[in-house]
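Q: A reviewer asked whether we had any structural model of the full assembly, not just the individual parts. We don't, so I'm hoping you can provide one. Inputs are below.
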Amino acid sequence: MQLVFYFLAVIVVLVLQTHVVFHEVSVVWHVDLALLVMVSGCLQWEERRALVFGFITGLMYDALSSDVMGLHAVSKVVVAYTTLLLSRHIQPHSLVLQSGFAALATALDTAARLFVLAIFQSRVYPLSMIVQVVLPHALLGAVCMPLIHTGLRVTLQALHLRPTPGQLPHARTP
Amino acid sequence: MTAKFRGIPQVDWFESRVASVVMPLQAILAQGTRWGRAVWYGYIDLTQVRQENIRLRQQAETLQGELHRYREAYLEQQRLRALFGFRSLAFPKAIPAEVIGVDPSLWAEAVTINKGADHHLQKDSAIVTHQGLVGHVVELAPRYATVLLLTDRRSAVDALVQRTRARGIVFGKSQDQLAFRYVSVREVVEVGDEIISSGLGDIYPKGIRIGTVVSVRPQRYGLFYELSMRPAVEFRKLEEVLALEP
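A: Here is a predicted structure for the entire assembly that you could use as a starting point for your response.
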């Protein structure tokens, strides 16, 4: 049930992210909320579940994007796997660490996509353009992540959704 | 009593004394009553005025909202009139569509429209407005389509300078910027020249406005100009578009 809840959350944030309003604001403010929801889920699940969640989140993203199919799926899986690796060694309940995870995830997601685009489509973006966008995104992600993670946890508790067998032990503490 | 009955106009000592004690108090009381009444009625009036003020303010807000809706409807009607006027003149079979979403990817300049294969749209259908060229359909679903805008870095359109017919290719540069490349330095191009589609490529019809030249710089040792353009279409304010048959 938790997985379903997180998929619903991803759908909601994707609807928000593709709203027409975002066409009028600068690309600097286009925070990848779906990525933050995905990282929030990956911090509390075991490997297979987190990777599948990351992959399907990426595919949903690809379905709404004009980019080549699978681009975001690859980048999201890379982020999910990195999040899993890092969350094994540290307790992810600290707000500061969550912010750090979000900033790292944002940068890694962008880097993975740019790498795939450069290798398979020969599309290279100017470095100044990348830096101008990635830095604010990482900062915004770091700010939004504790809010999103806490919001999702509170909603889960309010809905009385119990931890599922595939969940990591440290996630059982509220 | 006897004196009064007899009509003697003399104030009784007792009455005068009582009056001299009571009347000042009565005066004070009357004054207090007037003051209290004034305060009370003032409060009541104030309350009523306040309530009326709230009511009038709500009414003003409601009217403001209605005015806003009417203004929005008027502007939409103006836009649609321009769009349909353009359609009836240039492309009678064009399909009107609305922009319903944007591409969530970074640096991707694409929008989603509410018409798709069910409405006879096809992949590579050109998308225009009365202002000029918008882009073309890159992904198609039964009820919606994804349109790659001219400003996307993946976009390239063969184009002409309207005044001199010099040929080149318009590329997207993201963030509402266009570049006009491969224009020979032997051609004459000036700031302010209008750039139109050339019709080559079988996607975009000939003669649709793309933008205006804003800077002209010949390459130092090259064969071509480096031209920057301002798009004819305000992509950030895109709401209604026309899809043309390919």
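A: Points you may want to mention in the reply: Confidence is low (pLDDT under 50) at residues 168-174 of chain A. Chain A touches chain B at residues 14, 17-20, 22-24, 27, 30, 32, 34, 61, 64-67, 72, 110, 113, 123, 125, 129, 133, 137 (CB under 8 Å).
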